[in-house]
């Protein structure tokens, strides 16, 4: 069956078309700068002879226009893969916040959409864009089953002492105020890859997802037992534009003493903090260049970013009572050797010993970057949230639900 996967962000949209059960990617793409001038679509078609890349620059006022253009590419006379949209049996959507309602992959109904909408305030950068992706896909692929795969689902296994906050109980019971955790699809995917590589289904793993958003998870036997993001995708690690952990007193000070309103605080901590706040850029490649040019702010930002990861490694080593592997993944985790080196620095007491030379080698696929004598494996594993979503959609459809 053909499954089209959409990972819809506020101004971008990633997609992939898979044929299952072969897990064969037929094409993938990225639509950037939606709603701005000169939107760009980069569309890759995978064939037996390699890949063909098509890049189009055009004005796409909204996600609907973006997906229409993608559909045109999918059904194009020359490079198209489909004759018509009805050849897509299911559309899998990454939905970031599923609250406590969704512990598993779910067929999207009007009720599911209402729930995704109800959760907008909890994931303001993500759920509205995910919702829009669903609405547009319903029109473009009217015969396909629309399926939601939630970032939060994998973390629904956290024990209560890990997911509750120490606030009055009714805030949890009546308002759902608790840790949810995010990037679950990615943590689940790389944890499964790592356990298979180690040949240890019960492996104690620390998975470190470093993309635009960043989070870590403690995983034992394929089950998430703790994670660094919380009620929304703002807690924990330092991110591109998000602060990560911050003392709530700062928020009272911003509001009480400095005259911020709630909207301004949210904007500050979600969009103007993290690496952007520390170093003036949110993209790690730009900060890397600044660092090479001797920029002191970039150097501090790198140290702070890596220090936070290191602290969570220590915490999760305790939570797991030992570690079999630390796994780095996503844009920064897969590509930035300096972040990995700083994060693993002086952790030999835990049995974590990075091999500098292996860490600096760029190679595709899963690779091991620890010294041979390191008790803990350090792995770089490319994430593939889209494939994991497609697989979960196929499982759901095969189960006849
Ligand atoms: N070669 C690289 N070196 C360092 N950082 C990289 C590299 N390639 C991508 N990144 C970083 O990865 C981040 C984006 O990661 P990604 O997983 O694509 O995020 P998202 O899915 O959240 O958009 C950006 O900060 C980008 O700079
Ligand atoms: C949940 C989250 O932070 O997602 P992203 O990394 O795609 O922003
Ligand atoms: Mg991502």
UniProtKB/TrEMBL annotation:
Binding-site list for ATP: 14, 209-213, 283-285, 331-335
Cofactor note: Mg(2+). Can also accept Mn(2+).
Pathway as given in its UniProt record: Metabolic intermediate biosynthesis; acetyl-CoA biosynthesis; acetyl-CoA from acetate: step 1/2
Binding site for Mg(2+): 7, 385
Gene3D superfamilies: 3.30.420.40
Localisation per UniProt entry: Cytoplasm
GO biological process entries: acetate metabolic process; acetyl-CoA biosynthetic process
Cofactor(s) named in the record: Mg(2+); Mn(2+)
Alphabetized InterPro entries for the sequence: Ac/propionate_kinase, Aliphatic_acid_kin_short-chain, Aliphatic_acid_kinase_CS, ATPase_NBD
Enzyme Commission no: 2.7.2.1
Residues the UniProt record annotates as site (Transition state stabilizer): 183, 242
Binding site for substrate: 94
Pfam families membership: Acetate_kinase
Family annotation (CDD domains): ASKHA_NBD_AcK_PK (cd24010)
Functional note: Catalyzes the formation of acetyl phosphate from acetate and ATP. Can also catalyze the reverse reaction.
Similarity comment text for this entry: Belongs to the acetokinase family.
Subunit structure: Homodimer.
Protein name: Acetate kinase
Organism: Hymenobacter wooponensis
Source organism phylogeny: Bacteria, Pseudomonadati, Bacteroidota, Cytophagia, Cytophagales
């Amino acid at each position: 069956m053909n499954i089209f996967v959409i990972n819809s962000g506020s101004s971008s949209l990633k997609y992939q078309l898979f044929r299952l059960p072969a897990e064969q990617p037929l094409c993938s793409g990225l639509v950037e700068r939606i709603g701005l001038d000169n939107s760009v679509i980069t569309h890759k078609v995978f064939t037996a002879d390699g890949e063909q890349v098509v890049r189009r620059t055009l004005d796409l006022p909204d996600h609907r226009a973006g997906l229409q253009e993608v559909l045109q590419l999918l059904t194009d006379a020359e490079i198209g893969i489909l004759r018509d949209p009805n050849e897509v049996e299911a559309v899998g959507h990454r939905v970031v916040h599923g609250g406590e309602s969704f512990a598993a992959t779910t067929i999207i109904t009007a009720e599911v959409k209402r729930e995704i909408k109800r959760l907008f305030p909890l994931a303001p950068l993500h759920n509205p864009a995910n919702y829009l992706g669903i609405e547009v896909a319903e029109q473009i692929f009217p015969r396909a089953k629309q399926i939601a795969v939630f970032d939060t689902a994998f973390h629904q296994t956290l024990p209560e002492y890990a997911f509750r906050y120490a606030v009055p109980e009714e805030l949890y019971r009546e308002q759902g105020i608790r840790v949810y955790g995010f990037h679950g699809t990615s943590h689940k995917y790389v944890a499964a890859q790592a356990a298979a590589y180690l040949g240890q289904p019960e492996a104690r793993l620390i998975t470190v997802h470093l993309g635009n958003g960043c989070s870590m998870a403690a995983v034992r036997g394929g089950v998430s037992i703790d994670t660094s993001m919380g009620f929304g995708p703002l807690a924990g690690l330092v991110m591109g534009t998000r602060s990560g952990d911050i003392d709530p007193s700062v928020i009272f000070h911003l509001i009480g003493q400095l005259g911020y309103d709630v909207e301004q605080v949210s904007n500050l901590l979600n969009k103007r903090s993290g690496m952007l706040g520390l170093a003036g850029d949110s993209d790690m490649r730009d900060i890397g260049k600044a660092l090479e040019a001797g920029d002191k702010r970039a150097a501090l930002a790198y140290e702070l970013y890596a220090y936070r990861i290191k602290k969570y490694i220590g915490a999760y080593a305790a939570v797991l009572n030992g570690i079999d592997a630390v796994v780095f993944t996503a844009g920064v985790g897969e590509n930035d050797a300096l972040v990995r080196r700083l994060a693993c620095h002086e952790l030999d007491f835990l049995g974590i010993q990075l091999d500098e030379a292996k860490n600096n080698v760029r190679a595709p696929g899963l690779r091991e970057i620890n010294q041979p004598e390191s008790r803990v494996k350090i792995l770089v594993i490319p994430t593939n949230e889209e494939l994991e979503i497609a697989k979960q959609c196929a499982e759901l459809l095969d189960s006849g639900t």
